[in-house]
Specification:
Length: 277
């Protein structure tokens, strides 16, 4: 594995709750399981990915451009969760974790993009290749209830006779928040094509901007200092910039290993140093 340095400007330091010097940490905060999904399309030209800019009031990664995603919920691991595609055992092997965590991570990926974008990677039980047929008002109500933890994702699927489509996800990366940060996540990154007939809306209180973007355009804006990116988001965008179609993005083979950056001081300034696979 080769180490790569990610220089942190003052904006990034503030967003991550860090100062100019590596803080002393006697006992790191626990890292919560989380999932992030790169929703991609190419129907309007070269490959685009859907991104959110986190609201400036957020406690973690404020004002950062990110992919939809978030922390796993214990109810995401429920055994009765309707499931299609590779089984939980296969996902556990791919994600290098136990079956309960694998179920939770895959379910969290599908639930989080539904909560944050309205896109639902699910099909009717009687037609596993079809699209969910839910009224707009029903979708809005379900998203609100999930965000408020009033219902579990499995309940939503069962009530509406839907099955989670794990086969629509492709595993892409595994990043763990550095030990120096006050809020930490053990995050798996996935990529998925937006199903036909669906469109993400970014209607979430956690973001103040949502848009379809070309990966290279985001990388250029980051290089010019016009927006903020976390190291894992930056690396995933670099990989997406290497392809131009959804099919190529889904088929793209990338090396995957757990990556946990370290906060270090270099001659250039405060830096996140990450051993990349």
């Amino acid at each position: 594995m080769a180490a790569r340095d990610f220089l942190l400007d003052t904006g990034a330091q503030s967003s991550l709750g860090l100062g100019g010097e590596p803080p002393e940490v006697s006992e790191p905060a626990p890292a919560k399981l989380a999932s992030t999904v790169m929703l991609v399309r190419d129907d309007e030209g070269p490959l685009e990915v859907f991104m959110l800019r986190r609201a400036g009031s957020m406690a973690f990664a404020a004002s950062m451009h990110v992919f939809p995603g978030g922390g796993a919920d214990r109810r995401d691991a429920e055994d009765e969760l309707p499931w299609a595609g590779p089984d939980v055992g296969e996902w556990a092997e791919a994600l290098a974790t136990d079956e309960a965590s694998a179920r939770m991570l895959v379910a969290a990926a599908v639930r989080e993009i539904f909560e944050e974008t309205g896109v639902l990677l699910a099909s009717p039980v009687e037609d596993e290749g079809g699209s969910p047929r839910l009224d707009r008002e029903v979708v809005a109500d379900l998203r609100a209830k999930l965000v408020a933890h009033e219902v579990g994702f499995g309940e939503v699927l069962l009530e509406h006779h839907l099955v989670l489509r794990s086969d629509l996800l492709r595993y892409r990366a595994h990043w763990i928040t550095p030990e120096v940060e006050p809020r930490r996540y053990d995050t798996r990154f996935f990529v998925a094509a937006v199903p036909q007939g669906q469109a993400p809306d970014g209607d979430t209180s956690e973001a103040d901007l949502s848009e379809w973007v070309r990966p290279q355009a985001v990388l250029d804006a980051f290089a010019d200092g016009d927006l903020l990116l976390l190291p894992p988001t930056l690396v995933c965008l670099e990989q997406l910039a290497e392809v131009t179609t959804v099919s190529a993005a889904l088929a793209q083979e990338v090396a995957i290993a757990p990556v946990m950056p370290e906060f270090v001081m270099t001659e250039a300034g405060p830096t996140m140093r990450a051993p990349l696979p």
